[in-house]
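REQUEST ID: PR-0412
SUBMITTED BY: lab tech R.K.
PRIORITY: routine
TASK: structure prediction, single protein chain
INPUT:
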Amino acid sequence: DGKKHVDHYTHKGLLTRIEGVQALADWMGQDTDTLKNTFLQYRTDAENGSDQWGKTSFQGKPSEDLENEVFFAGTITPVLHYCMGGITIDAMGNVLGENRTAIPGLHAAGEVTGGVHGNNRLGGNSLLECTVFGTIVGKKIPVRERITSAVADTKIEPVQPKKLKEIAHSELQKHNTEDDCWVAIHGYVYDLTDFAEDHPPGAESIYKLGGQDGTEAFQSIHNKGMLEDFEDDKVGVYIKES
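STATUS: complete
OUTPUT:
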């Protein structure tokens, strides 16, 4: 089921919802009859169980009524996923020179290195590469011991949780700008103004949810436990208005 991914990429603006084959042809800049014939041929091949290239799996088969069909279209572009090759290291993360001997005091780990995976790698191994060789290198590099001062034995009072105010939807809607961006997620309202620029996929997806209940968009990508990192940004309890 690709709905979760379609919703995610539509929300991010990478997919566009288009109604009807004519509108799709206009969006693509293609001939309408060519698109129609392509879709109809795809339907025929799906019903037959294979096409001229030997394809046997057919998902997302369009309906016969192409004029009223709903399409989700996006532009596909190449990206650099992972850079193979780089600095040669040994099993201990030492950088090797042209004569294949270790260069004293020079270490490397992560994607900058080469020769670890050969001509290709298994998915997920780039993170493993960073952590394994990063740990090996980190453990063998001498680090100066920190000088700490004695701290007096003082009684630390427990921090009392702050009492959250109730925030109605009408109030939430007022905070919908880049300089004042509140978002409701799983029953709480968060002030994400400062966080937006640090959001890995970009600030725009945060700003689009400003002044709204962003629970559906959030849970299509993240798990609820991630919100534990945003306790300091929680400003109130979200109260939906009927």
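NOTES: The mean pLDDT is 87.
REVIEWED BY: pending
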